[in-house]
Amino acid sequence: MFPRPSLFVGIIVSAAALALPAHASAQNIPSGVSKSTQEERYFAQIGVGHLGSIRFDTDFVFINSGDPADFLLEFFVSTGDPLEVEIFRSNLKCDDSSSLRTMLSRGETLNLAIRSEGSLQAGYARLTTGSDVSGVIAFTRSELPAGRIQYQAGVPVAQVLQDFTIPVKFVPRVGDMGFAIVNPAPQQAAGPSGTDETARVVLRLYDESFRLHGITELTLPAGAHLARFVAELFPDIEALAGGNGFNGSMTVESSRPLAAISVLHTGVPTLTTVPVTPGRADQETAAPASFRVPSEGRK
Hints:
The protein has helices at 230-233, 237-241; strands spanning 38-51, 54-64, 69-77, 85-89, 92-97, 99-104, 109-115, 121-130, 133-143, 148-155, 159-170, 175-182, 199-207, 212-220, 225-229, 246-266, 270-274, 277-278. The protein is mainly β. Strands 1, 2, 3, 4, 5, 6, 7, 8, 9 and 10 form a 10-stranded antiparallel beta sheet that branches. Strands 11, 12, 13, 14, 15, 16, 17 and 18 form an 8-stranded antiparallel beta sheet that branches. The protein is globular.
């Protein structure tokens, strides 16, 4: 996560997400060798580059515990367009590109890093590889020019869900929850000749006693990514917090499956991953119109 109000554009990133429907691929697999079934997974937040005197780096580690598998890792900005970065493999630069394609043998470990010497760039990554390939991302925030590390954190899973719940902990000027979501529908699915794959998302803020304090809505086009702090979505949370802070939950209801992660960010700075809980307790509850936060301008 980045210093507010830039938000959560470069926090740590999710890895080894729950798989979307699998599809077979035979690319790069030697003839006569068994191949692993291919799956798509999503890293809901990545970030590289500089923000003032702060530098953000993202590193990946993958292990293949099964049959040989094709491996494709692609990087995107928040609009879904390709994100070009410097790609390093085992500390050696191998390309300037928006993707990396290779093959992983049984038992092989792949260490990757993406870097940028330019301004901060944020978005998400899509992994297409065998079902036996697992991975994790480490996100590092360091201070220039000395390169002193301020924090380093890793996230193992970004779940793909339509209904989920995020715990909320907010203390004014001290800490806030952030979350990132990706609509994994292919961009070409939208348009006159295709189905509208835009995700329509309803967010509801509850306190510890499950009392509703606000509702806001947003849309996320096919292939797009969004990262926000809870306080950006519900500005009244600061008044609700008073001097004691605000604890509760935020439920997320989407018309399409989303890849999602959440983190707790504090002003120290520190970053802590927080599980996204599948399902929501208000699944059968209608949203009272009086609680709705105007959605104009929320995208």
